[in-house]
């Protein structure tokens, strides 16, 4: 009973905001150690985008585009795989981790301590940011040094890359925390989470051009955050003439920012409403 009472106490009555944040930051190294100790997770989440990029860049060769705006297929696939990496790091990794921790009793034990869900969320988001930065850095390094991809030289484009990366990753992480409440056990979490993530990648323009999808599927998938992350990344790494291939004929930078902010708010609300130290049906 005492643990249940503790979990319903507002965070601010247990610790002040400053200490709540400090405790969350201190959890980040612990979360990172747990992440890299799981070999299967490192392979299927951390290395998967790079491995898929190598497959696509090796199989599909040649150039795409016209005139001086031609780019290699390796360049063309890079933005989509970056978006896919953000999805994997932000949604799949925390969803699987939290479902497993809920199943093995880790969250129940944490719920009996004075820390709040905010502290726990900070630790998870910090872990996701570190692993995602390393993951995307590895992906870009392979693109540059193995396939000769030329990176943007305009600082404005890198600023755009940064805010799309940050907004997209936070939104995906919060959605991943919310998704962790769906599996009924740690054993079933992979069967629930991974198909959802794979489906989202295919309908969001990660592996195939979004404009190639049927119109009804474009309309359905057009609201998903990964679609907007991928579109934003294409605006960074591809020549400006490629915007004509987008469904609207433009990059829609303002709309990308708006959609990612909306999904960040949606993820924050869903994660806070659905997160429990233990399942309610137990």
TrEMBL record:
Transmembrane in keyword set: yes
Transmembrane portions of the chain: 42-64, 76-100, 128-149, 161-179, 191-210, 253-275
Pfam short name (any one): ABC2_membrane_3
ABC transmembrane type-2 domain mapped to chain residues: 40-274
Membrane topology: Multi-pass membrane protein
Name of the featured protein: ABC transporter permease
Domain of life the protein comes from: Bacteria
Location in or out of the cell: Membrane
Location (main, coarse): membrane
Lineage of producing organism: Bacteria, Bacillati, Actinomycetota, Actinomycetes, Micrococcales
Signal peptide: none
Keyword Iron-sulfur applies: no
Keywords: Antibiotic resistance, Membrane, Transmembrane, Transmembrane helix
């Amino acid at each position: 009973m005492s643990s249940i009472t503790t979990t319903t106490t507002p965070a601010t009555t247990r610790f002040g905001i400053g200490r709540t944040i400090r405790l969350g930051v201190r959890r980040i190294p612990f979360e990172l150690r747990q992440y890299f100790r799981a070999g299967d997770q490192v392979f299927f989440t951390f290395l998967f985008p790079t491995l898929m990029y190598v497959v696509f860049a090796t199989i599909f060769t040649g150039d795409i585009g016209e005139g001086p705006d031609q780019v290699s297929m390796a360049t063309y696939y890079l933005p989509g795989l970056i978006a896919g990496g953000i999805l994997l790091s932000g949604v799949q990794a925390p969803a699987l981790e939290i479902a497993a921790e809920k199943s093995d009793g880790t969250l129940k034990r944490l719920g009996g301590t004075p820390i709040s869900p905010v502290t726990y969320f900070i630790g998870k988001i910090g872990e996701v940011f570190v692993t995602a930065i390393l993951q995307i850095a590895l992906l870009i390094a392979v693109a540059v040094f193995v396939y000769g991809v030329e990176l943007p030289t305009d600082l404005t484009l890198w600023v755009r890359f940064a805010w799309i990366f940050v907004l997209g990753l936070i939104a995906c992480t919060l959605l991943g925390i919310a998704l962790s409440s769906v599996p009924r056990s740690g054993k079933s979490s992979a069967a629930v989470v991974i198909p959802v993530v794979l489906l989202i990648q295919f309908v969001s323009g990660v592996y195939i051009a979004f404009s190639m999808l049927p119109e009804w599927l474009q309309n359905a998938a057009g609201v998903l955050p990964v679609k907007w992350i991928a579109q934003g990344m294409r605006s960074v790494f591809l020549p400006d003439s490629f915007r004509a291939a987008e469904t609207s004929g433009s990059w829609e930078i303002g709309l990308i920012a708006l959609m990612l902010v909306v999904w960040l708010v949606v993820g924050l609300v869903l994660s806070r409403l659905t997160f429990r130290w233990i399942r309610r049906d137990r």
